[in-house]
Design a protein that fits this description.
The chain has about 100 residues and is mainly alpha-helical. The chain has one domain. The chain contains 2 helices and no strands.
């Protein structure tokens, strides 16, 4: 049976990247609505409006999924840190006896 090895750096980095991506997605503003009147053809204006609406909806969904993923990575990281500390404490107690 192999030993479980946890790469704390990878978990920390993954959490940071997910948080950074979420912040980027949350910072994107809807710049399309102000330019819809520039398009003279109704079909083009409608298609651009539909695209902007879909993009906004999906960006919000992706932002939520990134937040969920970050939370899971943070919880996993904390659980492994807690387990490592408990093992270290029990090892220290055994050595003291």
């Amino acid at each position: 049976m192999g030993d479980l090895q946890v790469d704390y750096y990878q978990l920390e980095n993954g959490s940071k990247v997910a948080g950074d991506l979420k912040a980027e997605f949350d910072g994107i503003e809807d710049n399309v609505s102000g330019s819809l009147d520039v398009w003279s053809h109704d079909a083009v204006r409608d298609a651009l409006g539909d695209f902007a609406g879909n993009m906004d909806y999906n960006r919000k969904k992706l932002s939520q999924k990134l937040e969920d993923c970050k939370g899971k990575m943070d919880a996993t990281l904390q659980a492994f840190r807690d387990a490592d500390q408990e093992l270290a404490d029990s090892f220290d107690q055994e050595r003291a006896q």
